[in-house]
Design brief:
Layout lengths: L1 E4 L6 H11 L6 E5 L5 H7 L3 E5 L4 H16 L4 E3 L11 H6 L6 E5 L11 H17 L12 E3 L1 H7 L9 H12 L4 E5 L14 H19 L12
Parallel strand pairs: 1-2, 2-3, 5-7
Antiparallel strand pairs: 4-6, 5-6
Helix pairs in contact: 3-6, 5-8
Amino acid sequence: MAIPAWNEEASIVDVIMKVGSHQPGVDILVVDDGSTDDTAVRARGAGATVISLPFNVGVGGAMRTAFLFAKREGYQAIVQVDADGQHDPADLQRVLDGLSEADIVVGTRFHPESTYFVGGPRRWAMVLLSKALTSMNKGTISDPTSGFRSAGPRAISLFALEYPADYLGDTVGSLAIAIRRGLVVHETPVTMYFRQFGRPSKNAVWSALYLGRATLAIVATGLKGNQTPRGDVA
């Protein structure tokens, strides 16, 4: 399990404990993304392996570190879990099981049993982005910004080399790269809670503007067609 964390001292121990209770014996890596609080200390105390970055690089940069670690250590699967307690560890097995048929499994918040709600411009932008990525993929991607997802061996090999570090690169950008390289992306329903501590790094308007720009970029690059996987991601 990979948990990117930036100033999440209030929630990190609880997240690690819950992950461990649902997946006993699993290896947990916390990438401390330049935190200025006790995130790293508390994560180590809870039994996680911790890699501390010297300064904040964002979730994309933190997750690239996690994929490099997973590739170096020979892991065959990795699951990204948020450090703020939004993801329900009870869904971990479902996200992992999906790797039997896919290279990446995205936990979608938007399904009939979900109570999660996103409205306004951000939701409109997400719908457009979903349509753009779905048109490139061989299956529906209803929740392209979900950070609750798993990656198998081919995705680990790819993302250890190519992983976008810009805002939402760990979600939208990485999916676009994976689809263009021919990886199989599936979805599975998950439960998502609202953040209990701290605050998001970007507000809703900023996020909506970024998602709109990302949609245009993905549509433009999608017209080029998928690339043939090369090297050890084939």
